[in-house]
């Protein structure tokens, strides 16, 4: 086991729930500390040595956690997602940016060695092609969430360039998982649909049938994250945030995959405010830089993901 003490914020969130398990297997559960807003009882079956229920914007409490647990590496995942952020811009900025700067400052002071922070394809906006969007293109986000993620990317690059802080980041596409329900994201239709397919054999999508978005199965997202955090610094050429494209599909295409497994499944469409958010994002992403720098690869396509999601969700919902 590597001797690392790892802190995960947003530990009970969609990414955190799975990352805890994978990091515990690598570093030993006792070396993993999780933070979240949820009460401690919610962390009972998550692979964590310690779970602390607290507000990630409480910098005094954060400082205490880092010192008391002798944290060496932070995975700072806590964030308000795109849908939720639109309803409260000041709160979204406060949650999505201030704690990141706190951790960048601690890394500058060498209080922590290494930091991971998730960006998102939400940093992309108008004035660029919709398909195969490259690593270095103009970033014109039009959502509160995208603006906060673009700012975060620039802070990461600033602290690397000025203070050699080892902060690493990935622009996640929409993430699909069965362990923790997603919440507040525009791409979360692609999670909700599986729950409804099993429970009601029908789903009303808030995104239009032909709107393609970049998506990724959580297993692949976690593997990519761990790979980025393991490689040596000289393999990293991007210190804003790496594109991760995964796979691109529309609600109609995902419904067709589900119908192969649940033949009576039906879908209809009632787009809401999140349709405009989805339309501001690319439909596919070029992630060749991540593949070249640190060997990014994927194991799940839409068919394998659909089978795995339904298999595991049926057990979970039983
Ligand atoms: C959201 N799931 O929908 C997130 C993601 C690309 C979107 O960042 O807000």
From TrEMBL:
<comment type="similarity">
    <text>Belongs to the NAD(P)-dependent epimerase/dehydratase family.</text>
</comment>
<dbReference type="InterPro" id="IPR001509">
    <property type="entry name" value="Epimerase_deHydtase"/>
</dbReference>
<dbReference type="GO" id="GO:0006567">
    <property type="term" value="P:L-threonine catabolic process"/>
</dbReference>
<protein>
    <submittedName>
        <fullName>NAD-dependent epimerase/dehydratase family protein</fullName>
    </submittedName>
</protein>
<dbReference type="InterPro" id="IPR036291">
    <property type="entry name" value="NAD(P)-bd_dom_sf"/>
</dbReference>
<dbReference type="Pfam" id="PF01370">
    <property type="entry name" value="Epimerase"/>
</dbReference>
<dbReference type="GO" id="GO:0008743">
    <property type="term" value="F:L-threonine 3-dehydrogenase activity"/>
</dbReference>
<dbReference type="InterPro" id="IPR051225">
    <property type="entry name" value="NAD(P)_epim/dehydratase"/>
</dbReference>
<feature type="domain" description="NAD-dependent epimerase/dehydratase">
    <location>
        <begin position="6"/>
        <end position="245"/>
    </location>
</feature>
């Amino acid at each position: 086991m590597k001797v690392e003490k790892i802190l995960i914020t947003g530990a009970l969130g969609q990414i955190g729930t799975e990352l805890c398990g994978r990091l515990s297997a690598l570093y030993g559960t006792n070396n993993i500390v999780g933070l979240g807003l949820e009460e401690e009882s919610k962390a009972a079956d998550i692979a964590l040595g310690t779970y602390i229920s607290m507000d990630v914007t409480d910098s005094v409490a954060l400082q205490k956690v880092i010192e008391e647990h002798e944290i060496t590496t932070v995975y700072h995942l806590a964030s308000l997602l795109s849908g939720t952020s639109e309803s409260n811009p000041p709160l979204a900025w406060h949650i999505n940016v201030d704690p990141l700067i706190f951790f960048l400052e601690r890394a500058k002071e060498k209080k922590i060695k290494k930091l991971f922070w998730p960006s998102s394809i939400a940093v992309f906006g108008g004035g660029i092609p919709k398909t195969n969007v490259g690593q270095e293109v103009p970033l014109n986000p039009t959502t509160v969430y995208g603006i906060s993620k673009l700012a975060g990317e620039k802070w990461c690059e600033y602290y690397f360039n000025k203070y050699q802080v080892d902060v690493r980041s990935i622009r996640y596409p929409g993430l699909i998982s069965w362990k923790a329900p997603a919440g507040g994201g525009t791409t979360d239709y692609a999670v909700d649909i599986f729950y409804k397919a099993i429970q009601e054999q029908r789903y009303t999508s808030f995104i239009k049938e032909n709107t393609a978005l970049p998506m990724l199965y959580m297993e692949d997202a976690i593997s990519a994250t761990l790979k980025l955090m393991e490689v040596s610094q000289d393999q990293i050429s991007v210190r804003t945030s790496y594109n991760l494209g995964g796979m691109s599909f529309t609600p109609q295409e995902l419904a067709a995959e589900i119908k192969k497994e649940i033949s009576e499944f039906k879908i209809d469409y009632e787009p809401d405010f999140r349709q405009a958010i989805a339309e501001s994002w690319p439909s596919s992403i070029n992630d060749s830089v991540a593949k070249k720098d640190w060997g990014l690869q994927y194991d799940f396509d839409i068919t394998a993901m659909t089978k795995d999601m339904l298999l595991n969700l049926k057990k979970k919902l039983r």
